[in-house]
Design a protein that fits this description.
The chain is of the alpha/beta class. It has 2 domains: about 280 residues, LarA, N-terminal domain (Rossmann fold); about 60 residues, Alpha-Beta Plaits (2-Layer Sandwich), CATH 3.30.70. About 30% of the residues lie in helices and about 25% in strands. Strands 1, 2, 3, 4, 7, 8, 9, 10, 11 and 12 form a 10-stranded mixed β-sheet that branches. Helix 1 packs across helix 2, helix 2 runs parallel beside helix 4 and helix 8 packs across helix 10. The longest helix has 15 residues. It is globular, with a radius of gyration of 19 Å.
């Protein structure tokens, strides 16, 4: 079988070594100057989804972002860092930027932060779409010459894993994100929508922060940080996701975003078709990584799509600050504040937005067995 794309795996035991190791990953792909040209505008898109500090492993680590900024600047490119954080509430992106530590990095580097939330969005049709015919994209995307995707490797309740494909959702207007959840609540449909978005964005380069990842059932916001010690880079974000999935124990073909992207020709999801350079898979594979239990369900009928149990959001009143973020971000208005969140189980579509948006981890996912 001939290779269709190349992905670099580089060991990185700590963030103190991250710049050197990112440079190594780029050399394995042909060198930084193959991607970054003098005078070109490069938009760096980290995962800045939550108002949480670096040690929580919810966002791309600030030192990871700093390293990429420095590498791109050295090549003579103009650098922007951009994001619209999860939820879209007033000021949420700025709050996440500062608490994540990335705001300080951006200021010290003297580069511009493009707050998508505060800038115009542009509606565009998506060619060869499956569920999302058109949507509103951040204007900064259209102004950049090149997009660098910096996802964080994490578990996720709806897509099982979040990486390169899911990180591109941050280019979409918050109201359109709600629409995708509301109109296409099933895992398969929602994942097709994510692939629609990714197929439009198609970042030129993806460099995944898997130095410290997030594992377990409470990902992508309040799972457990897990040292993995690697950087994964490639021009095909789907291939980067497929390699990452295989390294932590997922079958890439059972992850819906990878499966559908491969089927649709949006990217390469079959690891047999990927030329892996740098470290060998056997050297860095994590055999005891805690996958999301909705995937790793021993009673499932088919791996990755079983429904012997579901996970429902439950509120820990000791942690809840009654801020209303869960209710504000529920795409089907299934949550009311009284004074704590009350979930209407008849309306709930199990999109887990409340879980992901909760700033204190009070909204947790608990197993409910199906009789």
């Amino acid at each position: 079988m001939s290779f269709k794309t190349k992905v670099a795996i580089v060991k990185c035991p700590s963030y103190s070594e991250v710049k050197k190791q990112i440079n190594l990953s780029l050399r394995l792909l042909g060198g930084a100057r193959r991607f970054f040209k003098k005078g070109k505008r490069v938009l760096i898109k980290p995962n800045i989804s939550d108002p949480l500090p670096p040690e929580k492993a919810s966002n791309t680590h600030p030192l990871f972002v700093k390293a990429v900024i420095e590498i791109v600047k050295k090549a003579g490119s103009e650098v922007w860092v951009g994001e619209c954080s999860a939820g879209g509430g007033v000021g949420v992106t700025t709050k996440c930027l500062e608490i994540s530590g990335i705001g300080k990095v951006v200021r010290e580097a003297g580069v511009e932060f493009r707050n998508f939330q505060e800038e115009p969005f542009v509606q565009r049709s998506i060619n060869n779409y499956k569920v999302l015919e058109k949507t509103d994209f951040a204007s900064a995307f259209f102004q950049a010459d090149l997009v660098v995707n910096l996802p964080k490797l994490k578990t996720h309740g709806l897509t099982f894993m979040t990486g390169a494909v899911k990180n591109c959702f941050g280019f979409v207007h918050p109201s359109e994100r709600k629409y995708l959840h509301r109109a296409f609540p099933k895992r398969e449909q929602f994942s097709q929508g994510l692939v629609d978005v990714y197929s439009f964005i198609k970042p030129h380069l993806t460099i995944m922060d898997a130095v410290v990842a997030m594992e377990g059932e409470q990902g992508p916001s309040f799972g457990n940080p897990r040292k993995v010690g690697i950087i994964i880079a490639g021009e095909d974000g789907v291939a980067v996701d497929a390699v990452a999935a295989s390294l932590i124990g997922y079958n890439p073909a059972a992850l819906p975003t990878i499966k559908y992207a491969e089927q649709r020709g949006v990217g390469v999801g079959d690891v047999r078709k990927i030329q892996i350079v740098g470290s060998r898979v056997e050297e860095v594979k994590v055999n005891d990584f805690k996958l999301h239990p909705l995937f790793d369900n021993k009673y499932r009928k088919m791996q990755g799509f079983g429904e012997s149990f579901v996970m429902i959001p439950e509120v820990d009143k000791l942690k809840c600050i009654k801020c209303g973020a869960c209710a504000d971000n529920c795409p089907v208005s299934a949550i009311k504040m009284s004074p704590y969140p009350v979930v209407d189980r008849g309306k709930c579509i199990l999109c887990y937005c409340c879980h992901e948006m909760c700033p204190t981890g009070a909204c947790r996912l608990e197993i409910k067995w199906i009789k």
